[in-house]
Amino acid sequence: MQRVGFTFRIKPELKDEYKKAHDNIWPEMAEAIRKCGIHNYSIYFKPDGTLFACLEVEGDYQKQMAELSRTDVNKRWQEYMDRFFVKEDKSVTGPEIETLEEVFHLD
Amino acid sequence: MQRVGFTFRIKPELKDEYKKAHDNIWPEMAEAIRKCGIHNYSIYFKPDGTLFACLEVEGDYQKQMAELSRTDVNKRWQEYMDRFFVKEDKSVTGPEIETLEEVFHLD
Predict the structure, then answer these.
(1) Which CATH fold would you assign to the domain B2-100?
(2) CB under 8 Å to B71, separation ≥6 — which residues?
(3) Which residues of chain B are at the A interface, by a Cβ-Cβ cutoff of 8 Å?
(4) pTM for this one?
């Protein structure tokens, strides 16, 4: 099991809508995430629009994420989410993710 | 069980030292954290010095943190950490913490 933390940005004024969309995540999207071995996945909001995500994944994170990104449902979800994201590079599909280094862990 | 995410800041140039200190956390400090019902506690570093922390806690987070902050070992640990922190309000003991709102969770 691998732990992963990453950050990306949304337009802060759209936070309530973003949360609502995630409260009502499509069952097939949740299923696709789980199928890629991802669990205990939380996203936290900072009022400046920064989102901080942490998750646990079985197997190799990069490989599992590549697999997830190839699914049809993920492509549709990212299109649905696109108007929330703040990105430097608009050509990026989905959020512009910055992976973070874990500097501490206590089981 | 409650999940909590929060953020605080350190001087980015001191990251390696901060990580080293946490790789070698005092056993009595780790024990004090566990005694307060805190587990699965990770801290992630963003290159601008922002730290993101996420943890799980049994019982009430505010109460458990208040309990932890009263321990002698925690006071000594925060003094030891003090030079790493970036704070607007220097009178704050320990890191200047901003609690984050969870906008998504998938078990």
Answers:
(1) Alpha-Beta Plaits (3.30.70)
(2) B32
(3) 3, 5, 7, 15, 18-19, 22, 25, 30, 33-34, 38-46, 51-52, 54, 98, 100-107
(4) 0.95
